[in-house]
Amino acid sequence: MIKVGIYNHHWSTLGGGEVSAGSLAEELSRTHSVTLLGPHKPDVDTFKRHLNIDLSLCEFEQVSGDLEASETSENFDWFINHSFSSRAINRAPFGVFVVMFPGDPLRMRAKIKSMICRPLWHFFRSTGFKFDRLENSLRLHAHDLSWVDSYSKFFAISSYTKCWVSELWGCDCEILYPPPSRSVVGKEKEKIILSVGRFFQPEGRHSKKHLDLIKAFTSLDSALISDGWKLVLAGGCAEEDQDYLDEIREAAEGSAIEVVANISGSELEDLYSCASIYWHATGLGESPLTHPSRFEHFGISVVEAMTAGVIPVVFEKGGPAEIVQPGINGLHWENLNDLVDKTNHLILDSSWADSIRKNSIERSVDFDKRRYRNQLHELLDTF
Asked: 3-state class of 59 per DSSP?
């Protein structure tokens, strides 16, 4: 049986990256010997309860970071790196890197640091002495890309990611869209606008723009809010981000906005099933040229919403923009005024909304687990 090691530094985060990595591990564990690699062992029950992903057939081996992951990779037939921002060198006979996003273009300060560190790194390599951690630190600051050649194949989770992998790493990718962790049957729709995304401090990260969504909701037609429409912001929140969650709750206080954190998978499915409209705002106000990583890399929650017939209204750049075909199975928006106008229109034109809703369910099938399973095996069978 083929031995597969799957490396992810963030198993405990339970975000979109872990849905993708967990789905990969679940599928391969049916026919391969799979070991999960990372600093913290994923909780199998939590994965099943919150993400509907079964990791019970997987083993676990602790590795603290890229250096240990690289050393451990030689013990496997296949090494699959599914860790965001990793630069681990593959030492297995066959290596796959599943790329969430390759990072941002180097700014001037980083370019200067690279110019200084690159000759130092080459010097340490030439001496033959083993200073693994120092050498690895210099390699990272030198922004050396020789590690890319250690992998047999790269899979990008979206066309958006694929484009930037080509730009920043100079290599081509196959696209492997991650599947939604749940497919929800829609119920009778209620007057709910839903947005799902982790609550975390937004500085320097692909923020879910909760404060902007609150601002947009309070700008909706007042008659709609009086008629019972509400906004629900749902997502996980780690202990270290509690202050940010408190800030969101304070901003929502006194309005028809609910903020719900760390709810169970079944509670989230209930929200998807009865919500009418889905908002997604990651990337708003960010620069696509200097900080492309701050846009949504794919958008699993968008697909999950579409399975339940929740109409997606998404920011016009990044992964969600390739999921949603504007005017057919959802809408794109370019600024908050545009988001408000298009949402008002959707609510007031029920026949138009019903048509888009039907198409959104059909579109979600293009990203379901069956399609993912078939595509994954097609890509891997070539090796």
From this structure: strand
Domain ranges of the chain: 3-106+143-178+369-381, 192-367
pTM of the model: 0.89
Query: What whole-number distance in Å separates Cα of residue 297 and Cα of residue 17?
Result: 10
Hey, do 3-106+143-178+369-381 and 192-367 end up sharing a CATH topology, with the first three levels equal? yes
Q: Which of 44, 49, 36, 38 is nearest to 236 (CA)?
A: 49
pLDDT 10s digits, 35-45: 999 999 999 99
In one-letter notation, the amino acid at residue 380 is L
Asked if pLDDT for residue 121 goes beyond 80, the answer is no
Strand partners, 223: none
Burial of 37-49, coded b for 16+ CB within 10 Å and e otherwise, reads bbeeebebeebbe
CB-CB contact of 136 with 66 (8 Å): yes
In angstroms, the CA 193 to CA 311 distance is 9
- Percentages (nearest 5) of helix, strand, coil residues in the chain: 45, 15, 40
Q: Are 37 and 72 in contact (CB under 8 A)?
A: yes
Q: What type of residue sits at position 191? A: K
The label of the residue with tokens 């891997």 reads: 380
How high is the mean pLDDT of the chain? 91
| DSSP run (H or E) holding 17 | helix 16-28
Top CATH class of 3-106+143-178+369-381 equals alpha beta
Residue 182's alpha-carbon distances to 121, 122, 272, in angstroms, are 46, 48, 10
Over 60: is that where the pLDDT of 201 sits? yes
CA angle, corner 55, sides to 54 and 60, nearest 5?
Answer: 175
pLDDT band at 137 (very low <50, low <70, confident <90, very high): low
Residue 71 phi, psi (nearest 5): -65, -40
Cβ atoms within 10 Å of 293's Cβ, excluding its own? 20
What is the CATH architecture assignment of 192-367? 3-Layer(aba) Sandwich (3.40)
* Phi and psi, residue 265, nearest 5°: -60, -40
11, two tokens = 């198993």
Give residue for tokens 């993912």.
372
Chain position carrying tokens 């399975």 = 307
**What is the enclosing helix (H) or strand (E) of 230?**
strand 230-235
- Res. 104 pLDDT band, cuts 50 70 90: confident
Instruction: Assign 248 to helix, strand or coil.
Output: helix
Distance of CA 129 to the CA centre of its chain: 39
